[in-house]
Description:
Layout: E1 5-9, H1 13-25, E2 29-33, H2 36-45, E3 50-54, E4 56-57, E5 60-61, H3 62-72, E6 77-82, H4 87-95, E7 98-103, H5 108-139, H6 149-162, E8 168-171, H7 178-188, E9 196-200, H8 206-214, E10 215-216, E11 228-229, H9 231-234, E12 239-243, H10 250-262, E13 264-265, E14 274-275, E15 279-284, H11 288-293, H12 299-305, E16 308-311, H13 322-337, H14 346-354, H15 360-374, H16 408-426, H17 431-438, H18 442-451
Parallel strand pairs: 1-2, 1-3, 3-6, 6-7, 8-15, 8-16, 9-12, 12-15
Antiparallel strand pairs: 4-5, 10-11, 13-14
Helix pairs in contact: 2-3, 4-16, 5-13, 6-7, 10-12, 13-15, 17-18
Amino acid sequence: xxAMTVLVxxxxxxxxxxxxxxxxxxxxxxxxxxxxxxxxxxxxxxSCDIVLTxxxxxxxxxxxxxxxxxxxxxxxxxxxxxxxxDVQGVIEAMRMGVLDYLLKPLNVDSLLARLAIIRDxxxxxxxxxxLRSEMNRNVDRGTLLGHSQAMLDIHKVIEQVAATRGTVxxxxxxxxxxxxxxxxxxRMSAQAANKFVAINCGALPENLLESELFGHKKGxxxxxIADKAGLFAVANEGTLFLDEIGDMPKNLQVKLxxxxxEREITPVGDTKPIKVNLRVVAATNRDLAADIAQNTxxxxxxxxxxxxxxxxxxxRERPDDIAMLARHFIEKYTKELGKPMRPLSNEACRxxxxxxxxxxxxxxxxxxxxxxxxxxxxxxxxxxxxxxxxHQMPLLSTAPSTxxxxxxxxxxxxxxxxxxxxxxxxxxxxxxxxxxxLGMSLSSLYRKLEELEIVSKRTDDxx
Length: 463
């Protein structure tokens, strides 16, 4: 494994050189800087895994360095050394991506323990993600990943709806992972052992789509040489996923509405209805309210489908998830294509995080696959391996929020929540490792997660 690179920033030369010596003896590659400009230049030029910075320095603070590290080395971890910690400063540091505060005078053993956790997680991350990918590959065709608040909220709703058989409507732009959500709902439901059946409602002409959904009797039309079970019957006791529901012909929408209301279907050419018991999940990238206004989509069907609506956020609204998704696709396609495993360079990662992603997660997946195929470097995937279009589209702003809670208890709660979320990001969602780093038992961590409304189910699904 490649030795981790630590950038030590401190205006006190003795402190800086002492830390550099200790960390070098522990097997780290160490770079040093005495002020904010020098540290920023190193972050531009080098690939840093960990930034260990003093808080108060001439010409800036540790927060400035953490902010620059977040921009220039998106996958780096920042630790701040200070003798002046306060609640508001800690909250602001968490927003800059700072993992933890270290109080001066430093306890060297405590520092090395923190760095060891980060190093061990880096070394194990590829293997863990690979094993998870293999496990998920055997279960379904996708994994719902994301640490961002938007994705944590999606996971929470999925947990709630999976416990029922309620109909779900998933909305969002193309490429945001609507089918992955549908499969996740099925996998977490009591019907997980039964079939998950998917169909694109816009891919077939009306007569063929009707036959696919409801089945037909022999001789019902030219070419119907035998009875055929429809997908409603095939998915009985399981889940039927109706993708691109907004493209379904309006005449067929009437029959779908009846099937949902009565829980029965009538095959084409038959007069005897068949009872079915299944969950229906529908998805669309269309504005169904506008389609209703234009009389191309039935309002009563919309209300029947929209029992629970899940709005998938576009990737441009969840930039904190991009690096994780990129790693996931790198692991997936290096194995599928028989290529050596290579990390993203800092510049490549920076470019991905700042791109506006009109094609969302699907576009990111395609770009990573392309980069793995075309990359010539044996060590990394660089910015030159990414398509030129990434440099020509508008970039996202990575500026953090400046909203500060007024009440102390709100500030402490927000700090605790942000701190735990950042730690979970660092340890790739491993709650046992997170509990160890926080100095608490696993059961105490779960109680804290529920208290802070981070997750409510005891699984390692904070991804």
